[in-house]
Please model this.
Amino acid sequence: MSKLRWRCRRGLLENDLFVERFFRRHEETITTGQAAGLQALMDLPDNDLLDLLLARKEPDGGLDTPDVREVLSLMRQPTARPLS
Model:
């Protein structure tokens, strides 16, 4: 798992924030399919990844797979805010 986490380090802080939140929530339960989807996303340039994470665009072509869509869905989940 540490190799996957290291592979997910990004140049844009915004992407790193999404990735870190994903690992905080799901590191103990990542499936093989999710790891494959995450690897595919990490092959993207930073700006393309950010567009996907912010739902400015959706995966297309070879990137449009169930594994990628599942990981994107998990990464896009907002942070819960405490009630005041």
